[in-house]
Design a protein that fits this description.
Outer membrane lipoprotein wza fold like; 4 domains; elongated; six-stranded mixed beta sheet; ten-stranded mixed beta sheet
Length: 433
């Protein structure tokens, strides 16, 4: 009986010890995560359900802070990765334990990635953990890479812009790969022509078309076969794959993209077009051979459309000169002439440019000759209907190479007219070009 009593006492004592040890590790929840900005600093405030002990580790390349909770189990429902772009904070990555539902996941640590190495201070106020990050002395300088994303190839080594999260890695890029606490693995690697890298102990890994963040995830998974919980950081040191060629009435050269760039942004970044540029017929020649023609003025006035017209590695941007876009105005006009197409040009505009019609002009039978020699067609335009009745359908828009002929008599048979008159005229203008 005495032995049984002793057994019960020992069991109760063990239960009390176990309860005390479990109670010493509090289950705490991360309830809020927010930022506060001032002209001189940015604050990252983490609020927990109970006060916790926090420790931090600083990394230099890329500049990061690792926040961990050594004496507590902290649970969070925040996303694995959050792009902040607030002051010097670039993004926050939450490393969770592999088990648990999203609302009950335990944090291993939080990684705060910064745009550059800057002074910081961590303090606590009750349940709040406050991380104060000083702004650089010249704040504008930190935004310079965003404004000058395309630079001539000859200047590529003079600037080291920050990588845009959406940048796609390609051949000849130079990557800086750092595996935390693994100096033997961390190194710079070059992407070969097949879009692959070699990072011992991984012999070959395809990185073509991946963003730096996606490559971090891929490398973490691949290195997990050799390391326990590897932490990988990837930055692009040299951008060599996203090259765009610019020719014509712009600053000719080869430029390297550092981020997702629209056609309008690209033209602005390289200094715009010349005064002799035909901005209404800009050609974007894609890597696969497709030729797309855009009106720069339309894109500038339509931001939604402009945001969809992107340049990419291997593209060529060609801005033609104005003299390639000519319209010929002949017949019963006061000053037969060549008119340059500077945007939208209608039949009435062209005739007005040529001084207007003569007294003998038959406006109800103006002919527009269009097309290459041998496949031309004639379009009858009744300008009398336009001028007297306001029929705007008669005032068609002209295309480069069109011939506007104002006759002295009504033209009955357009095909006969083309055979008798248009061919000699076309040969003459072709020779004059």
């Amino acid at each position: 009986m005495k032995v049984a009593k002793n057994t019960i006492v020992v069991f109760i004592a063990l239960c009390l010890i176990l309860w005390a040890s479990c109670a010493s590790v509090k289950r705490v929840h991360l309830t809020h995560l927010l930022t506060k900005e001032s002209p001189t600093e940015t604050e990252l405030v983490l609020t927990t359900s109970d006060p916790v002990q926090v420790s931090n580790t600083k990394l230099d390349n890329p500049p990061c802070l690792i926040i961990s909770f050594p004496e507590n189990s902290v649970y969070s429902s925040e996303e694995e990765e959050m792009i902040f772009s607030k002051g010097p904070i670039k993004r926050i990555k939450n490393e969770y334990c592999p088990t648990g539902r999203k609302s009950q996941r335990r944090l291993n640590f939080m990684l705060v990635e910064l745009t550059q190495d800057i002074p910081y201070e961590i303090s606590q106020d009750g349940r709040s953990i406050i991380i104060r990050l000083e702004h650089p002395v010249e704040t504008a300088a930190t935004h310079l890479p965003e404004k000058e994303q395309a630079v001539p190839q000859s200047q590529g080594e003079e600037k080291k812009p920050l990588v845009e999260p959406g940048y796609l890695i390609g051949p000849e890029d130079i990557l800086n790969i750092e595996v935390w606490n693994q100096p033997d693995i961390s190194r710079e690697v070059a992407v070969n022509h097949d879009g692959e890298i070699s990072l011992p102990p991984i012999r070959k890994l395809s990185v073509m078309g991946l963003t730096p963040s996606q490559l971090e995830e891929t490398l973490t998974k691949a290195l997990s076969k050799y390391l326990i919980d590897p932490i990988v950081f990837v930055t692009v040191k040299e951008y060599n794959s996203q090259r765009v060629t610019a020719i014509g009435e712009i600053k000719t050269g080869m430029y390297t993209l550092k981020r997702k760039t629209t056609l309008v942004e690209f033209l602005g970044q390289i200094g715009g077009t010349t005064g002799n540029a035909d901005t209404y017929h800009i050609k974007l020649i894609k890597k696969d051979g497709r030729i797309l023609i855009y009106n720069l003025n339309d894109l500038v006035n339509d931001p939604d459309k402009s945001s969809q017209i992107l340049v990419a590695g291997g593209d060529t941007v060609y801005v033609p000169p104005l003299e390639f876009n000519k319209v010929y105005v002949l017949g019963e006009v006061k000053n037969p002439m060549i008119v340059l197409v500077k945007g939208k040009l209608t039949v009435l505009d062209a005739i007005t440019e040529a001084g207007g019609e003569t007294r003998d002009a038959v406006l109800k039978s103006v002919i527009v000759i269009r097309g290459e020699l041998g496949s031309q067609k004639g379009i009858r335009v009744n300008l009398k209907e336009l001028l007297k009745k306001g029929d705007i359908s008669q005032n068609i828009e002209l295309m480069p190479g069109d011939i506007v002929y104002v006759p002295k008599t009504f033209i009955v048979h357009i095909e006969r007219f083309l055979r008798d008159l248009a061919y000699p005229l076309t040969w003459y203008f072709w020779y004059m070009r």
